[in-house]
Protein 1
Amino acid sequence: MADSEITGRGNWNSKLGFILAAAGSAVGLGNIWRFPTEAASNGGGAFLLIYLVCCFLIGYPVMMAEIGIGRRTGKNPVGAFKALSSNKLYPLIGMWGVLCGVMILSFYTVVAGWTVSYVFEEIFFAAGMTGWATWIADTSNGWLNALFAVAFMACTISIIRSGVSNGIEKATKTLMPLLFIVLFILIGYVITQPGSGEGLAVYLQPDFSEVTPGLVFAAMGQAFFSLSLGMGALITYGSYLSRKENVPQAAALVTFTDTLVAFLAGLLIIPAMYMAQAQGISIFDSAGDLIAGPALIFQVLPALFHDLGGVLGVVFGVTFFMLLSVAALTSTISLLEVPVSYAIDEFKIKRKDAALYIGLGILAISIVIAFNTGLIGTIDLIFSQVGLPLGGIMICLFLSYVWKTDKALDELELGNNNFRNSIVGKTWKVFIMFICPVVILYNLLSALGLF
Ligand code: PHE
């Protein structure tokens, strides 16, 4: 293990390592649990379309900005803003990011714990132990929620304690390809089943009458959450990146991978809901709306897997929830890495101690949430739906008017010669200076009813 791995800052071993780790951060419960849920409750195809626009036109430029800031300064989000300006106010942008990260990780750990408990649920069900299956799948049981949250946080802490290349990079390199394989197999199965065609239509045919400020707000919040933007996760990951690498290209790959997984997850889950309906499972709630929220994945899909029965049912059930756990783990490590890198850089705390104590501190919040799952919606609204786009605006404005786009372009040109004169480079400048901040702000204000 390299010295820097033990005492603090590390580096990615390879470009692929960075891309997989950043894509691993991006791909998570956001894609597989949150995206299909949001799409299902916001008109399917219309949501998908606006979401894609948000990812590529808003998310991609902000991602380049974050990685650029991180690589230029080689610092955590708070240290990065300190390094680029002497004004004491700007590091508050990083502080807000760290706070959002801590709060997101606190509820994320509880939901991630559910994904593990459902692996057991599927196994118990297949073994005929239905009583145990029902017991372990009860997401209203605070003690169980807490137990699985503890287990999940323990995994996250142990990976972060191992450092950047030995921990994060190694873990994501094996986990990410596995995720793709399982996703493809499941989709192949679902879309060839009766009933799934109706779901495909709902998902792929946009109904523009559904586009409302609320939908755009949800799609934008989802894009920020899913791409891990607005809170400095990519400033942190960018700080471990070598000057030789091509940032615009790496950011494009990460954006593309993340959006592809979200798209594929929708392609799996929305048709699966209709397939479940064809098998007599109810997919509409008492008000006649499509089941959404946490219930979507944790109720409809197990019912579908059970209905399949036999070996097939258990194999699909177990692999699906394992896939979700894996995706969640590569995201929780990036969420924990943000406050940990802050503690290492700014307070000179050893990586192993920082990971342990900060992880335990966040776990304490998770345990409160485990007993009060109703808090998830509120924390998600404040720190992801509003918090991340807000962080995004501040990052755009800081880069454009404090650090200055010209200096940022100097950084982006390392590894990408003459980027500023390319079409992407020129467009990026206009987007980061004007379009992204204005569109995000307008969207936030109109969804809050202030515009
Ligand atoms: N992008 C992750 C997901 O989709 C969540 C996340 C948000 C991770 C913000 C890091 C930072 O699940």
Protein 2
Amino acid sequence: MEVFKIRGGKTLSGSVKASGSKNAALPLFAATLLSSEESILENVPDLSDVRFMAEILRELGSEVEKLDRTTWKINPTNIVHAAPYELVRKMRASVCLLGPLVGRLRRAEIPMPGGCVIGNRPIDLHIRAMERLGAKVELKGGVVHIDDKDLRGNSIFMGGRHGSTVTGTANAIMAAVLAPGKTTIDSAACEPELSDLCAMLVSMGADISGIGSHMIEIEGVESLQGCRHRVIPDRIETATYVLAAAITKGKVTIRDGRTDHLGAFLNVMSECGVMVESDGSENLSVEVSEFGLKSFEAITLPYPGFPTDLQAQTCALACQADGLSILTERVYPSRFMHVPELLRMGAEISLEGASSIIRGGRPLTGAPVMASDLRASAALILAGLAAEGDTWVQRIYHLDRGYDAFEKKLQGLGADVERLPESEIPKAFLSQPG
Ligand code: EPZ
């Protein structure tokens, strides 16, 4: 396994380019199955989750070829309806295969996605959507069996206990575009990644209106053509670089950074004293106000609310902001695996139910820390950038799932970060408890 060694205290400067969005690319790969024709996806991030999804599509019978670092060709002429358990159980996003398989083949067999450290990942809303479209759904031996030979359009309500579901909405859309008749999806999630999915489906011949709203209307069509589609930039990666600039009090430009995808996050940054300006095209500039970083409050909500995928990284920034900050999780109430590791770096954080309360403004000190999931890994790296001394982040395979060339991009901004074999960790660190 590999680790990141970060020597803190460098002020970041310069320019970095946002890669394509992981959370757009994964459903887009799945959506190519809705046509029997070849599709090309461009601006795909170079991530282990993407390579994993490509492998699953191959197992389903697609020919999948990586044409260059960010371009993939998928030819799903002959596919089967059963996804391989060994691959699917390792990545929650593979649940996105449900909709396309039901839409194209009228049947699907998908292992139930496992839980993960950020919390329970149910799919009851996905199942409800398929049943509303005429499917018979059975759970046998941990596998969801869907038979939907009578697929037809219908009204679907996608709201759940924690608001809308992103991949649940994606599945409902992908099944409905080939369902005879009209489908309305009420309380649909409206994350930018879903708008990107709808844009690609329309380019394939789908009939979708209300894109980007909480009410989607679809007229089913007979079949869809192949397409060439460019993945939108990754808003979570973009915001992570905003936070990297802010936590080191640097001045950074982010190319392909879409301010229109960052709404509530920018409000929180402004409250904290982080100035983010757009140059009118797709470039952001970031710097901290002369008054420094100030405490703030944020509550995670479905889009356009503050993204849960930025909660851990923003907690790292709060450690450097004078005063008491409060971060409340309304999407995954137990998404606080980064907190114990930040405490090892001298952070002052207490957990009260679904909220973390951070007393910021005190220096962090480098330490050996353990990544637990994708966004917690990024939070620990951000903390390491600001900490005094060396921070060793272990299990960075979590990071490689969702951040494209993270250490190279940070090095390009002047960070002192290295990707090393685990054996390089100083023995003294390894004898520490925990
Ligand atoms: C997507 O996951 C993202 N993943 C997640 O990003 C992100 O955290 C999440 O949306 C919320 O924004 C991808 O897009 C691949 P949900 P998804 O279904 O769709 C509840 C990352 O770090 N729920 O929107 O699986 C669920 O418990 C990842 O990039 C139900 O109750 O999330 C949660 O509280 C992590 N029943 C809330 O909805 C369901 O059937 C949101 O979950 C489905 C979900």
